[in-house]
Write a structure and sequence with these properties.
- A hairpin with an 8-residue loop joins β2 and β3.
- The chain folds into two domains: 95 residues, Nuclear Transport Factor 2, Chain: A (Roll); 80 residues, PUA domain (Archaeosine Trna-guanine Transglycosylase, Chain: A, domain 4), CATH 2.30.130.10.
- The strands form two sheets. Strands 1, 2, 3, 4, 5 and 6 form a six-stranded antiparallel beta sheet that branches. Strands 8-12-11-10-7-9 form a six-stranded mixed beta sheet.
- The radius of gyration is 18 Å and the shape is elongated.
- The chain is built from eight helices and twelve strands.
- Keywords: Nucleus, Ribosome biogenesis, RNA-binding.
- It holds the Pfam family pre-PUA_NIP7.
- One of its GO terms (molecular function) is RNA binding.
Length: 188
């Protein structure tokens, strides 16, 4: 497990910034109360086998006793690098994104299952939407009872959604909590 280099850090932060905006500062400076230290440590990003982890510094220090070959996972896996070198957020980053989300979309109960099976969010299933969303923004998808269901990319702006037909795509699906069942072998 090693720290991210400058290029990797830039790519990861750009992807997270797409979803949380200026709240990225909250993620980076979040204090950690894990470990035996009386002073709270901070969280950091580490790379292990093409996966990026969000982990407390005190846990990283304790994990140095484990060889890289034997270390499977540490902290929260927020994403992974593909063979082509691009970075993709995984569904395990949802709690981090939901707590700091800049743009949110709430689904009607009738369209939650469709989204959880990997389909895009349609205008007919939209319950609420935050203002000032532009196409290409990262969006966190919630149920009407504020349970985070997944995340995606806005296909339409907030104003365009108001005059869109019910079968128009509002959010392009990127990840949902149904992946824990569908892709459980690939997640870890």
């Amino acid at each position: 497990m090693r720290p991210l280099d400058e290029k990797e850090t830039t790519v990861v932060f750009e992807k997270i910034f797409k979803f949380v905006g200026n709240n990225l500062k909250n993620i980076v400076e979040n204090p950690s109360n894990e470990g035996p230290e009386s002073e709270p440590s901070r969280y950091c990003f580490r790379l292990q086998k093409n996966r990026v982890y969000y982990v407390s510094e005190s846990l990283v220090k304790r994990a140095t006793n484990i060889s890289r070959k034997n270390l499977m996972s540490l902290g929260t896996c927020i994403g992974k690098y593909t063979h082509a070198g691009s970075f993709h957020l995984t569904i395990m980053s949802l709690n981090l994104l939901a707590a700091n989300a800049k743009h949110k979309v709430w689904l009607k109960p009738t369209s939650e299952m469709s989204f959880l099976y990997g389909n895009h969010v349609l205008k007919g299933g939209l319950g609420r939407i935050t203002d000032s969303i532009v196409p290409g923004d990262g969006v966190v998808v919630f149920s009407m009872s504020d349970v985070p269901l997944g995340f995606g990319i806005a296909a339409k702006s907030t104003q365009d959604c108001r005059k869109l037909d019910p079968n128009g795509i509002v959010v392009l699906h990127q990840g949902d909590i149904g992946e824990y069942l569908r892709d459980e072998d690939e997640l870890f």
